[in-house]
Amino acid sequence: MSKPLPATPLPPDEAPLRHVRQPLPHDSAKRHVTGLAQYIDDIREPEGTLHVAIGQSPRARGRLVALDLDAVRAAPGVVRVLTAADIPGKNDVSPAFGDDPMFAADEISFHGQALFAVVATTRDAARRAATLARVETLHEAPRVTVEDALERGESVLPDYSFGRGDAASVIAGAPVRLEGSLRVGGQEHFYLEGQVALAIPGEEGDVHVYSSTQHPTEVQHVVARVLDIPDAFVTCEVRRMGGGFGGKESQATQWAATAALAARITGRPCKLRLDRDDDFKLTGKRHDFRSDWRIGTDETGRILGYEVDHLARCGYSADLSNGVVDRTMFHSDNAYFMPDVRIGSKRLKTNTVSNTAFRGFGGPQGMLVIEHVLDQVAWAMGRDPLDVRYANLYAPGRDVTPYGMSVEETDTLPALMRSLERSSDYRTRREAIRAFNAGSPVIKRGLALTPVKFGISFTLTHLNQAGALVHVYQDGSVHLNHGGTEMGQGLYLKVAQVVAEEFGIAIERVRITATTTAKVPNTAPTAASSGTDLNGMAARIAAGAIRRRMAAHAAETFGVPEDEVVFRDDRVFAGNESLDFGELAKRCVQSRVQLSEAGFYKTPKITWDRAKGTGRPFLYFAYGAACAEVAVDTLTGEYRVTRVDILHDCGRSLNPAIDIGQIEGGFVQGMGWLTTEELVFDGEGRLRTHAPSTYKIPVASDVPADFRVALYPNTNREETIYRSKAVGEPPIMLANSVFCALTDAVRALDPTRPVPLDAPATPEAVLRACEAMRGRPLG
Amino acid sequence: MRQAIRFRRRGRIVEVRDFSPRTLLLDYLRLTERSVGTKEGCAEGDCGACTVALGRVRDGRVVYEPVNACILLLGQVDGADVVSVEDLAADGVLHPVQAAMVEHHGSQCGFCTPGIVMSLYTLYREAERPVTREAVNDCLAGNLCRCTGYRPIVDAALAACEGPPADRFLAESETIRADLEGIADGADIFVGDDTRFFAAPASEDALAALYARHPDATLVAGCTDVGLWITKGMAAIDKVIWLGRVAGLDAIEAGPEALTIGATATHSAAHASLGALDPDMGELMRRFGSVQVRASGTVGGNIANGSPIGDLAPALIALGAALELRKGDRVRALPLEEFFLAYRKQDREPGEFVRRVSVNRLGAGDAFRCFKVSKRFDEDISAVMGAFRLALVGRRIASARVAYGGMAATPKRAPETEAMLVGVSLDDPASWEPAFAALAADFQPLDDHRASAAYRRTVARNLLAKALHELATGRTDETRLVGERPALQAAE
């Protein structure tokens, strides 16, 4: 049983739709299954292409005293070795703060940090040569953990907090007071296609860079900065990525810039593809946190005051930590009203790789903390956690977030949760589990139903813009290009559906083309779940402008009013006349009607004053809820997720098949983050889980056999593209239900004790919690 | 002596005479052939993006198995039909598993998809009908997907495998069999010279002679570990002796007292006979690596490699196993536990190779339990592996063999614990305590990235407790999340 449930239908759209809302397969599906979909490493290399490998620091912290590269240069196949001294521009690949050197030249900041690059005739030769350097360092003890960083008092960015009222006093005076600390682990993206770039030198210093990146504009800009050439000399292109998940938002630039530098210096095409273990060591991950919390509630568990300090391990540099930790703060309320509240944060500096964007962008961590806290509250007063959650949901009159934004859509989430409560049979199963646990000494079951409220828009307001370029050719075929990138999420297809709808033509007539900075400039990264909202709208604006010009021409030709010209079924109807879309395109060209348009869209309504900690950073919220059931072996800490029910709000879905795919995939990825995916750094700052042999993402058997996923029938009250809602990130946090269900199962060992379970809840973490419930330490 | 390897590829026999002994199949496909549909995801045989199918004749029939091309030497495809993702569709018509993947929205980013399609192709060809969800999950354990959450892939597999297999490869199977039999010449293979070669002796005597001549050569059976020495360790391996062509070295003999497994029998091949020893052995094999790893990796290789964990070794030691080694003409045998000397150090002389392992069957009154505890159930290596063979007289333990993996630098028996178990009553849990306490004397485990020492100590104790509890109650439904045994074991 795993087929999506049919959703209650919404009333039909005003106009009948041919492509939008259809569950069309991914545009590349046939190419995926036949092996014909091209990724960067599959592009036929130009003759003479060289290969680049990274020389890495053997230490996590210290000074680089000597770098002897003679053996590297002498190795077979080596053409050139590059160091910081070879960089004509700025030795900086950072997205904003200027603190990410492409090659460390003096200060060493983390284990594996790039010191140099080898350019050789084969990838194998480059990799082997890169190990031959003699690196001499003045070694210092690395700061690895949150506690190390707190002790040293070092941050990559200033502390930041916002809130309302006087949380400390309210908590002090509250009838029920609880406090604690939750550790939330990081996560490796494990995109199946690792970081890769191919740089092809052109005339006069031009360079064309194929990069597996979510942010071609950033790659273009950083390559130009490193090479000291204008942005206009650099073109960045990407047809598709083999997964991104945030890991290729800011951190694809270093490899693209290194390949581009190699291409500049050798004059030959150069390719850099990181080995998987190097990709683990050299690229950032989801931020891990220690979050210290205090809460005060009334006798029913309703929140009166909440204080939380999020202590984020950011790694050695700022990267995107500003936005990430801000989003942790924005989502510290999840779906709950907090009358008096203070949300604080520290962005701690450690000698580890710089943590970066990861699907959810900090939000999941903030939300997990409050879900954990509400479990503790519920148990402290003997209530079902679901009832405590209901009692705290945003509601009319209790509808302003800690950052001053009104939650306008307060009816959706309670209704969605009630619906899921019924369809998942929550109350009956709660009782059944209680009975089961009473008679089962070893295996304990647990159940949890948790909500998701996720803010949609980049909190860095200027990123909320997009461009698209649409051409109609004289045969009626359409060239579609926009600033969004395809990483598997089906963005290209969704935007093509919009454009085909706009022209009333078969979707096969819309040719999807690779994202390139040469066609649409100054784009935002494909991130923050915003790809469809922004690029779909920009493409619709572009296509709409062309269609109106074509309609005007048809109206003039056939002597009907413009608004009576209809584009439908690949034809254009004007009064009693009709002609093929291609025929009209041909007539337009012959009559000098422009059939190309650049569309531009910017998100309305959003404002954010970070200094004051108030505004409307999000256009709207996406909602969802999940109910998870688990079974735990309390002798080993092993567990299985046995059933999951999900109800998720995509507004009016543009493509239900794609959206279900995002929900299921996001949930499973979130489940991995909270269960078996464990990043282990040793005392020397070395990542010990740097490959799939030791870093365990979910496999097929980890997915519950009973997995029921449905779309919640809803519409977006904001004027988004066909009233859909963004779906990329929110489903990650549906997996909080798994963590809460595991906690619930462990609690069955002794309902009088709080469950000391941190994330990720590996079997070891679960067994440690089980032993604590039995009043003894592990071992 | 043949100085080339030969395999079947896209309907033709390909002969390769000049290649580096450490060339990997994936590099041959992507860089030499430029068949770039097959992807490199991890280069260590864990993600499955590089999965291709190898067809070989077994009992007169062409059988396809999935392998990880990223850690398989090119030379190892000698004698096989090599099928990669580009080969499945013909004349614009998708293979049934491809069509089902499209129909069920089984791909998102698409990078893992070629490997998944190839794993599903072998499932489609070889799996017993009806194909269950569990069978699909087992088939996919070695294929990581980060986008879909697997549900649509599993649904695609179930849909594609609804009926009996019928694809164009089956229609051509007689031709394929004839082609493969045509290149199976039984000759020794030696490609290269005395300083750098890929060799594949065809007989045990030829192997013994060659290895005696080149004791510095690297013996390769399945290459599931040596492959990583190449891709990750960047080892300079210049002399390779592949054991896969040695006639008879893969023989499995199921005798009345013991099961004897030839060194080069793959885990897949040995799965059924090991499972027949005890259901827990079958479950252990089901969770051993992945289908790809089991199709390449061998029982002998797993032992000879001397991993401190080596999922299989603790179970075999507990059962009681003898290892047979050969050097030149000399053959010797020793108890398996004595083979493991220290971390990654075995009692194997230069030029000596593992010949076979004999495992004792359980007798009347013998009970066996083994448990693998890992971070993830499938495709993981155990943090702790516990195996227990207990001879019962009535409800009392008359003798015990206890072995653990992950608790020391080698797979190791627990002599103190074994002693303390003798005389213990299944009906008196208090009598179990001295055995639990003895574990601390037998093992001083380490902290590492798989688990802490404290976790290992607790789990080691609890696994023994679980085994005893299960034997006492005769049930496993109260104590297991996976690998539940039939309740008839209550008779024990």
Short account of what is shown:
The complex is a heterodimer of chains A (about 775) and B (about 500). With about 775 residues, chain A is an alpha+beta fold.
Structural description of this entry:
- The complex is a heterodimer of chains A (779) and B (492).
- Chain A is built from 19 helices and 29 strands.
- Chain A is α+β, with helices and mostly antiparallel strands and 779 residues long.
- Chain A has four domains: 236 residues, Aldehyde Oxidoreductase, domain 4; 188 residues, Aldehyde oxidase/xanthine dehydrogenase, molybdopterin binding domain (Aldehyde Oxidoreductase, domain 4, 2-Layer Sandwich); 153 residues, Aldehyde Oxidoreductase, domain 4; 138 residues, Aldehyde Oxidoreductase, domain 4.
- In chain A, strands 3-5-1-12-9-10-11-20 form an eight-stranded mixed β-sheet.
- In chain A, a hairpin with a 2-residue loop joins strand 22 and strand 23.
- Chain A is globular and about 80 Å long.
- Chain B starts with a strand and ends in a 19-residue tail after the last helix.
- Chain B contains 18 helices and 20 strands.
- The model of chain B has no long low-confidence stretch (mean pLDDT 96).
- With 492 residues, chain B is an alpha+beta fold.
- In chain B, 57% of the residues are buried.
- The radius of gyration of chain B is 23 Å and the shape is globular.
- In chain B, the strands form five sheets. A five-stranded mixed β-sheet of chain B has the order 2-1-5-3-4. Chain B has a five-stranded antiparallel β-sheet with strand order 10-11-16-12-13.
- In chain B, a hairpin with a 2-residue loop joins strand 6 and strand 7.
- In chain B, helix 2 crosses helix 5 and helix 16 packs antiparallel against helix 17.
- The longest helix of chain B is centred in the last third of the chain and has 21 residues.
- The chains are: A alpha+beta (779), B alpha+beta (492).
- At the A-B interface, helix 1, helix 17 and helix 19 of A face helix 2, helix 3, helix 4, helix 5 and helix 18 of B.
